[in-house]
Design brief:
By secondary structure, the chain is α/β, with parallel strands linked by helices. It is built from twelve helices and 14 strands. Helix 4 packs across helix 5, helix 7 packs across helix 8 and helix 9 runs antiparallel to helix 10.
Length: 396
């Protein structure tokens, strides 16, 4: 017997139908939890919708600052990018939602939690791995793995039949997930990887070809791997990211269209907008280039694929992710300084970098003078490194 269920509620198609379905099947109290991660929606309206749909209580928590500070920034310190391109905007939101959901379940004495993720996607794994890591005894209900519906279209029809207002329509059936870091579009008309995304679909950025003809220059200051100021104006993590989202979006920066490999083994086409995150990813690389030792940088880079997979697959609360984070954060202690980037019609390029901890030595790097470096020393260096290559050729 389940006395209460806490559902991660977004107000979208899946979770709106899920509230009514859970109430009908389990004959129990449904508590909705809506996390404000910067999705830009009227959460009061969403709360009212949850109550009208069948929830007995609704929790709404503003998590934007915590999300950026404790989840997005640690991820950016690692230069995480799944399969080299996806900046993990949806992936990184799930552990925080799950954490707060478990806290509410424990506060309310609820025996179960639920989510609206499908049985084909990554989010079911991300939510549930986090649930079990935080509360091993919690019961998890995944409606998509239980109910009779087989498609988003059938959900739309069910919602229309029961008077549940949803934003998805038969004409625009793709799935949208938004937070302060990014917005993703999947499914529906996007399932044909050859078809160009509808131009009217995009939300956080304007088309690059319609961006201003004049470039925008931004200075981003870093301290121990985290951005702390834009154009010398210090800001909180949340405000800083919002500022960069606005500037980058106005210049058409941050769009990608990819086919990625889901953890469950399915290839999926996703279209993403990550304007401010794209700028921060580029700028962070630039400040690292003058502050990190070569071997330290290469060691960290060798961990990016693994670290990114851990977030994408849902292992944020795993001991291996935490161990990698400890190493990465230790490396980031020297990553302090300022980077200048230029934004122009969808591109983000570095035009300058400086740091009080810079390892860049102009006297050594110059082509104009010796600067304390004896070029003759390179001869022995090359011969030692060529020895094994020479031996291989002599052997043949």
């Amino acid at each position: 017997m389940i006395n209460k269920i806490v559902i991660a509620y977004s107000g979208g198609l899946d979770t709106s139908v899920a509230i009514k379905w859970l109430k009908e099947k389990y004959k129990t109290e449904i508590i909705a939890f809506c996390a404000d991660l910067g999705q830009g929606e009227d959460l009061e309206v969403i709360s009212e919708k949850a109550l009208k749909t069948g929830a007995s209580k609704v929790y709404v928590e503003d998590l934007k600052e915590e999300f950026v500070r404790d989840y997005i920034f640690p991820m950016l310190r690692a230069n995480a990018a799944y399969e080299g391109t996806y900046l993990l905007g949806t992936s990184i939101a799930r552990p925080l939602i799950a954490k707060k959901q478990i806290e509410i379940a424990e506060k309310e004495g609820a025996e179960a939690v639920a989510h609206g993720a499908t049985g084909k996607g990554n989010d079911q794994v991300r939510f549930e791995l986090a649930y079990y890591a935080l509360n091993p005894d919690i019961k998890v209900i995944a409606p998509w793995r239980e109910w009779q519906f087989t498609s988003r279209q059938s959900l739309i029809e069910y919602s229309e039949m029961h008077g549940i207002p949803v934003t998805a329509t038969k004409e625009k059936p793709y799935s949208i997930d938004r937070n302060i870091f990014h917005i993703s579009y999947e499914g529906g008309v996007l399932e044909d990887p050859w078809q160009e995304p509808p131009s009217e679909m995009y939300t956080m950025s304007i088309p690059p070809e319609k961006a201003p003809d004049k470039s925008a220059s931004i200075d981003i200051s870093y301290e121990k791997g985290d951005p702390i100021a834009v154009n010398d104006e210090h800001m909180s993590p949340e405000v800083l990211l919002m500022k960069l989202n606005s500037i980058a979006g106005e210049n058409g920066v941050g769009r990608i269209d990819i086919v990625e490999n889901r953890y469950v083994g399915i290839k999926s086409r996703g279209v993403y907008e990550t304007p401010g995150g794209t700028v921060l990813h580029t700028a962070h690389r630039a400040i690292e280039s003058i502050t990190l030792d070569r071997e330290i940088l290469h060691l960290r880079d060798s961990l990016i694929t693994r670290y990114s997979e851990l977030i994408y697959y849902g292992y944020w609360f795993s001991p291996e992710r935490e161990a990698l984070q400890t190493l990465i954060d230790e490396i980031q202690k020297e990553v302090t300084g300022t980077v200048r980037v230029k934004l122009y019609k969808g591109s983000c390029s570095v035009t300058g970098r400086k740091s009080p901890l810079s390892l860049y030595n102009p006297e050594l790097a110059t082509f104009e003078a010796e600067g304390g470096y004896n070029q003759k020393d390179a001869e022995g260096f090359i011969k030692i490194n060529a020895l094994r290559l020479k031996l291989k050729k002599l052997k043949t």
